[in-house]
Amino acid sequence: MTFLAIFWALVTAYFLYTFVFEIGFFPYMNMITVVVMIGIGADDLYIYCKVWHLAKSEKNNGVLEKLISDTLRHSVLSMLVTSLTTAAAFFANFVSDITAIRCFSIYAGTTVVCNFVLTVTWMPASIMLFEKWCNFHFCRNADVYTGEFSICYCLCKVPHKVYYLVCDWSRIFFEQILPCLVIKLRYLWLLMYGCLGICSVIVIFYYPRLKLPSTRKFQMFSDDHLLERYDFHVGTMFGFEMTSDDDDSNPNLPITIVWGVHATDGGDYLDPNKKGPLYFDDGFDLTTGEAQRWLLEFCRRLRRTDFYLNVPGMQLTNCFLENFVKHYMKRQCSSDNPSDSTPGVHYSKYSPGPRFNNGHISAFVVQFQSNERYTHDYQHVQSFYRRVNRWVTEEMLRAPAEMRNGWFVSHLDFFDLQQSLVVGTPLALGVSLAVVSVVAFFTTLNVLISLYAIATIACVIVVTLASLVLLGWELNVLESVVITVAIGMAIDYTLHYGVAYRLSPDLDREMRVASSLSRMGSPVAMAAVTTFSAGLFMMPSTVLAYRKFGTFLMLLVSVSWVYSTFFFQLCFAPSGRKGGSGSFTGPPRTAVREVRASTWTRRCTPFLSPR
């Protein structure tokens, strides 16, 4: 049923994405959502099943319908919080300027919401049907009349023994050993993982640092794939493929100034195939004498700048108006050497110059060569762009009214991608962190728990990113999504423990830590195991995106489980007052009575030091 719920969540989200949101572009990156849902789709199920078994173990648990009501009342909040934070982390990527990231954010966030709806509706109904109609006991006990054991009993005997043995050891570990291990060595865990977080910050921002992509080639497959071996290894052996920054074959960055068209993108931000219309500048007019004189002087001043490359002779890619005045206007109307193709040579849609619409000059393009070589270095290209753009902007302020809306552009496609990653990633990270902070506060209604949760998430993020940096990752499109999504996925385990700590009936801090560990330790660990397994199963893939996302999942869930278990709750143990310190309201009395009546709190008592 879990796999069916994940499948229907993906299908429902695709229906909403295509027919309700009417997004016609479905990028390849959206397929990563399948990997994400395999990893996190069963997390809420583990929480619900744990609460279900706790409710069944209580005395006077009532009829089946009451069990469903009680379990939903105690588990929906935790499942809603984790689903909301994960979906918010995905939706936060919509602030990016990259179309593929925007489409992925919509589809992935919608899938998480659909999965939550199916979990709180379909899963309880399925469990109720199983308990009522499918939970037969004849495979476990002898026949009532004959006393003989059935074939089913013989087949299920060994699996049942293994199951109960694993359950017993799991109960002992999560209810006795783990709380004792966490609380007894709390100062060691706090010091060790705190220092690890500080060292990770140094790795990310100082050395070796998280770097921008150094090549414009988008790698689709793993390094050992035949297609990628040519691009990254064999291709450099051919002269026409030599594109290193020190090679003279690299072209110079052009300096292109455009008039008559506004620098406005009218295309569909969710579909790169829809370019949109051009927005013409109605005030542009090159036919006036003042505009032509200023344009000629503008071209002369540009030639005197320090970023202009002086190329002797007549250049068709330079200022068209200069060639028109100096060469074309001085020629005779008729020539002894007829050249019927002369207009096609000197004017085409691929060369700079005037652009006509209904017999009028609607746009004008001037292009010069700069002395800067094309490079993938972000800082170098950014310095060139800012220097030239600042000069062009200052010149436009002195231009006549009909020529003031010109703007500068060059071969900046790869630089624009880098710029979008530099600006969009921190912005999406901030939006996701803000949403997570608000959700954490309103879920726990406790200032200290919220602050400690944010600190834990920060440590999880920096440690995970530092590990990826040491693995040689660069900040590309997939990595940008990974950084933002990490917040929503990293807070799940922390919030599960935070809600359990908040609802604990004990006033002693150590007892609260023990009760939250014994109650949520098992489902959180199982959720981590399934997510880790989903990432592990992606590693044999030859598709680089799947392999990288699998690496990210394994690192994230490992670090998140360690920090939420050994760091988050221990922040309360050394400091603060007992009871509901920092809380706006106390725990509900009904929850206190129900949790106090359970047996898992008393099991931890012999292993804790008295206060």
Automatic annotation (TrEMBL):
Keywords noted in UniProt: Glycoprotein, Membrane, Transmembrane, Transmembrane helix
Gene Ontology MF annotations: transmembrane transporter activity
Glycoprotein recorded as keyword: yes
Gene Ontology CC: one annotated term: membrane
Membrane-topology annotation of the record: Multi-pass membrane protein
InterPro entries noted in UniProt: Dispatched_Hh_regulator (IPR052081), PTHD_SSD (IPR003392), SSD (IPR000731)
Location in or out of the cell: Membrane
Annotated TM spans: 6-25, 32-55, 75-92, 104-123, 187-207, 421-443, 449-473, 480-500, 520-537, 549-568
Gene Ontology BP annotations: smoothened signaling pathway
Domain annotation SSD: ranges: 1-129, 449-574
Family: Belongs to the dispatched family.
Protein name in UniProt: SSD domain-containing protein
Lineage of the species this protein comes from: Eukaryota, Metazoa, Spiralia, Lophotrochozoa, Mollusca
